[in-house]
Predict the 3D structure of the following.
Amino acid sequence: MPLQENPEFHAIVIGSGITGGWAAKELTEKGLSVLLLERGKMIEHGKDYRGEHMPPWQIPFGGLPLRDLYDRDYFIQRKSYAFDETTRHFWNNDRLNPYLHENNEFNWMRTDTVGGRSLVWGRHVYRWSDLDFSANANDGHGVDWPIRYTDIEPWYRYVERFIGVSGQAEQLPHLPDGEFLPPMELNVAEEHIRGCIARRFPGRLLTPGRLAILTRAHNGRAPCHYCGPCHRGCSTGSYFSTQSSTLPAAIKTGKLTLKSDVVVEKLNYDPERARIASVDVIDTRTHARKRHTARMVFLCASTVGSTQILLNSSSESFPNGLGNRSGALGRYLMDHTMASSTTAIVPGMLDRYVYGNRPSGIYLPRFRNLQPEREVDFVRGYGYQGGAKRMTWQNMIHATSDIGERYKDRLSAPGPWSIRLVGLGECLPYRTNAITLNHRKLDRFGVPQVQFAFSYRENEHRMVRDMATQAEVMLRSAGCMDIKSHIEMNTGGDTIHEMGTARMGRDPQTSVLNRWNQVHDVPNLFVTDGSCMASSSCVNPSLTYMALTARAADYAAKEFKAGRI
Amino acid sequence: MRCICEAIIPETDTPGATTARVPDFIKLIYDDWFTAEERREFLSGLYIVDGYARRRHSQSFIRQPLSIQQDIFRSLQREAEEAQDRNIDLREFVATIRELVVTGYFMSEAASKNTLAYNPAPMSYEGDYALDNVNKQWTY
Ligand SMILES: Cc1cc2nc3c(=O)[nH]c(=O)nc-3n(C[C@H](O)[C@H](O)[C@H](O)COP(=O)(O)OP(=O)(O)OC[C@H]3O[C@@H](n4cnc5c(N)ncnc54)[C@H](O)[C@@H]3O)c2cc1C
């Protein structure tokens, strides 16, 4: 289909999650008319947060899982800690939206809503550094990133100023400080351990988690009221989500058209102009098909969603998937390992407690391979998340075999301080960790299903063992007791930091996107979600996705105004 | 059932399992959440408790005073533990009932507001707070 002289919109943004919300905000604020397409249903800010502030006694079946229903309709999504009856209405129905993975090697965790996973995400946000951006170049795994920290730094700052990030400046070169609101306090047990680690392990540090949650009023949003479970939705907009932040900003411009309940099937390429000419969509309720036109397209449908669309948009010009002259499309899928969990009791401090439900925890940044190291048998590194708390009745049901008054008293009082350190490890980009389309298995819209092939390799396994050992060493030195590590390699996708499959690179022969997240050879198509990642670092990725999206939107708008798009 | 609930979590200066309507919770679980197999196992567990009461105290479980009911439950639990793998059913029953009673209790409105400290909008966070100020676990 040829490019239209007068398209309906200046830009079409596909997906309304963390990155799509940003693309819509940036492009509309720069004066472009934007059509935002989302396959999920509408979730109105506040009104549709059905589980928000639901008191314990109203939670169905005391919070026990509805096993028959979950087994039938949510057999993948139920694996998330954030999935339960207070949030189920946000999540994808696995029966209606199947995918293929022969050996159960990938859990594709996703929502089915306007706002995407911004509604339920964990809100941890960390900057990358040049340790990350130059990792591929330095050790030869994957292709070199076409950008460095200086390219993205202004955009980190720009994004942080808008979303609001609480955190503590620590002057670590490999985990750069951001524009922080005051941090959420560490509790006494964490302070104790922070002190011990600082004294005994030079170069290691325990710091409050850096979170897209407000500790004071910011851009018209109220500070956190410390009710606790953010993932149920927050009607005061105290954590960053599409609904609380980017969507209202985009709507305010008067330039946004939002369509929910439409799934993008494919993009149509005009070989004469070497541009995307139109976007084909299917109404998820009526299955009616429609075509939309625009001068440019921002693909923000999440790592797997965007790559599915590109793979499904083959044409004579691109027989192996749109923008796939390199053969890299669909390949180099990554996620973080989250396979080691170490718990312990922190003795004492029994007269100390906390006030308020802090919806966050701690971060213990990477300390491995900052300089080439001899004592480890893996490349790259890991960080820990977790935190300390006083045990609750849930943890103590079987702690004693007693019953009666003493049992009741014991369960009603806070238990001992316990701490948990969970390692999140960098995963290398492997060519055979990949998604493809299975043209014999179609979904209910007639779109070929995604098929995953994924496994962690020796480097990830070695790193996981070190995570457990080092967590134990640190906790032991801090006087902790009853230290236990649980090591079990997790399934790909479990950490919900899936990325790669349309990587950025310097060379069109080996990558899909250039330094502006623009598809090589297709100047009016930008892919700015996690699929663009050429490596994975070990920190939570979404802040980087947001910064790359804002940066790409800035570039795209300039190109548009210069008449080049 | 009501008696077992109260034996595990009795009324003190805070509500007991009965006041917190734990038996209703367990009935709901029994009717609408358990599988047929679980219902069968649960019922046979209750019969074991009652049979034990009749053998040792020559009267049904519900006729005993609370302290005897608690003794019965304790000794059954001990037996289940000592029997190791020979008595899996009883051990599972004892664990299940404990979990259900405790969950039903602490998730209830009565316990959330009286036994624990209920504060749905704390408005601030302090990581070093004197336990004396509240002297209970927070409801969550
Ligand atoms: C429980 C949980 C905790 C997390 N914690 C963290 C954390 O602490 N820190 C962090 O950095 N990240 C975290 N993540 C990951 C984070 O949510 C994602 O990285 C982020 O949402 C990705 O943004 P996105 O825009 O690429 O995708 P999404 O937010 O998933 O949005 C993509 C949108 O595109 C839509 N879409 C897909 N296909 C189509 C199609 N064909 N047509 C139309 N629309 C389509 C989807 O429905 C979705 O709404 C967490 C995720 C979960 C689920």
Q: What stands out?
A: Residues 16 and 115 of chain A are 5 Å apart (CA to CA). Residues A 14-20, 37-40, 80, 82, 109-111, 116-118, 120-124, 263-264, 300-302, 305, 309, 496-497, 529-530, 540-542, 545 surround flavin-adenine dinucleotide (CB under 6 Å). DSSP finds twelve helices and 19 strands in chain A.
